[in-house]
Specification:
The structure is a homodimer. Chain A is about 40% helix and about 20% strand. Chain A is an alpha/beta fold and about 300 residues long. Chain A folds into three domains: about 80 residues, Winged helix-like DNA-binding domain superfamily/Winged helix DNA-binding domain (Arc Repressor Mutant, subunit A, Orthogonal Bundle); about 80 residues, D-Maltodextrin-Binding Protein, domain 2 (3-Layer(aba) Sandwich); about 100 residues, D-Maltodextrin-Binding Protein, domain 2 (3-Layer(aba) Sandwich). In chain A, the strands form two sheets. In chain A, strands 3, 4, 5, 6, 7, 8, 9, 10 and 11 form a nine-stranded mixed sheet that branches. In chain A, strand 3, helix 5 and strand 4 form a beta-alpha-beta unit. In chain A, helix 1 crosses helix 2, helix 1 packs across helix 3 and helix 1 crosses helix 4. The longest helix of chain A has 28 residues. Chain A starts with a helix and ends in a 7-residue tail after the last helix. Chains A and B meet through helix 4 of A and helix 4 of B. Chain A binds a DNA duplex (30 and 30 nucleotides) through helix 2 and helix 3.
Chain lengths: ~300, ~300
DNA sequence: AGTTTCTATCTGAAAAAGAGATACTTTAAT
DNA sequence: ATTAAAGTATCTCTTTTTCAGATAGAAACT
């Protein structure tokens, strides 16, 4: 098993082209480098350098092993960097629950930035259905969550409003409803309605959104979007979820003759209060709060 | 900078759940493990284990660092494995030139097997045009090559026939030639011919293949296949290159009224004789020889 | 309560690492 | 051709590190 010092000597010698120079760089005697390299050669059984000339030059085998040596030193650096990040109080892992409706490009972009800023923090992402985030926070399963505004929150965590999202009725461009310039309740009632259903079965709020007697339920709003694109029924979805389909024309927004503003729903970020927040959680909270939501 | 022994002690302790057991596993005294872990904790500044109970249990930070420790040991293993493979005489790298006409699924499959058999051998793949492989072998640029049979080889390397490939005239299903039940020379001469051109410009053999006065040249036969699919001209190509397009019907084979068999061309594998072959080269040579070519 | 199994810590011995000196070789310059 | 500079291998001796063994105390199990 190669020793760390031997590897360092090997690398320094290969890079500087001489054992003496390597010794100077490592602040060690030349003999130390010479011994280290020789021991490495003995242990591996591979001739690393060609010593026929004054300056030792890497053999082909040495060149191959040098790459592996670099790989080892890189993982060593990762180790020490991770240790340093832990010393700075950074969380080793963080669980973030983002309601499926809200898993949208700016959030994804924020996560990319997060990865760059905290490369050593492991992030677990949950994408629960509607209204499941509060329970995940309360139970401690998630450390932070992004969710649509609730009427009443369970005890045990903080939350903060950060924007708004608009719920709009949409259907395929080929759907019969698409040909109407305006739709009212009875128009909608004549066609199948697709409804995002919470995993949490006891949760049966949002009755106000159920208009049609012919309903289907789906766990994920993205599944619903797929069905809509296939021309199946209509649904009241958040703009952000179907933004792409709306811009490319696959889906269209239905113009309503009723309740113009009631569908504007707040977006909250919530976090547990029991567990102390580290730098990563603070960063996330701060940047989530600064996000601009497209319909907000 | 963490020491290899310290990391081993850390890992063994984490896995076995006790410093004493780790000591037994590593054939060291318990005190050695205890010291190693403690020193690692001091150097990193991170508490790795919770010692409040009898058996030390990993802290959250310890768990995070354990993963990095595993990564280090894995790269150490890679180092020693590569050293072992070099001791067995395996080449550290190998250059294989495969003429573009012959870069076909069974060869790709063979390379996949090669990668599994010799994970530490770096493979450089060249995909030269027609008739360029012998020069690559002669000059030492490539160690081994797969090529179409040549009339006369330069000195300095061995070769062995391993199969045959059929050259067929093809065109798009929408091309005027496609409507003819049989084609003769004068039919072909009326349309543009696409010809694979060697990188090696002085090489101007295969005049026998040039039939039409209206020719275009392309370096890669795959580029030619693309042009053919777009309905541009016809070409005499190896079946293996356009097999996919032939089966899905995009391209069709033209039935000729002349020289039925002259287009059957041998496939050779060649290798340099100056450089001693290692196990990897031997393996490749043996398995290339065993390949079944679809038109062979 | 007694026994077992564990950890931390101390001590001394053994091993390893490393500095310094020396002899010899190669490269470059005079 | 000779000299000077820079490099390597190897030897010796010192310093440092590593480690086993012993011991005391804590935690779990019977």
């Amino acid at each position: 098993m190669p020793n760390t010092d031997q590897l360092n000597a090997f690398i320094a010698a290969a890079e500087s082209g001489s054992f003496s120079a390597a010794g100077r760089r490592l602040k060690k005697a030349q003999s130390a480098v010479s011994n280290a390299v020789m021991n490495l050669e003995i242990e591996t059984g591979v001739d690393l350098f060609d010593r026929s000339t004054r300056k030792p030059i890497l053999t082909a085998a040495g060149e191959a092993l040098l790459k592996s040596a670099y790989a080892i030193m890189e993982s060593h650096n990762d180790f020490t960097n991770r240790a340093r990040s832990l010393n700075l109080g950074e969380e080793s892992n963080l669980c973030l629950a983002i309601e499926q409706n809200l898993f949208i490009p700016p959030v994804v972009h924020l996560l990319v930035q997060f990865e760059r800023t905290f490369p050593h923090v492991e992030l677990e992402l949950l994408d629960p259905g509607e209204n499941d985030v509060p329970e995940l926070l309360r139970s401690g399963r998630a450390d932070m969550g992004l969710m649509l505004e609730q009427e009443n929150y369970p005890q045990g965590f903080h939350f903060r409003g950060i924007g708004h999202s608009r719920r709009v009725p949409v259907c395929s461009k080929d759907h019969p409803l698409a040909s109407l310039s305006q739709v009212n309740h009875s128009d909608l009632r004549r066609y199948r309605q697709l409804i995002p259903k919470s995993l949490n079965l006891e949760e049966t709020r949002h009755h106000e959104h159920i208009l049609s007697p012919r309903v289907w339920y789906a766990e994920s709003p993205f599944v619903i979007a797929e069905l809509l694109c296939a021309g199946l029924g209509w649904a009241s979805l958040h703009e952000s979820v179907v933004q792409e389909e709306l811009t490319n024309g696959e889906l269209i927004v239905l113009k309503r003759t009723y309740q113009q503003d009631a569908s504007l729903q707040g977006i909250d970020v919530g976090w547990t209060e029991q567990q102390a927040q580290g730098p990563a959680a603070k960063w996330l909270l701060q940047h989530l709060s600064g996000l601009k939501f497209n319909s907000g």
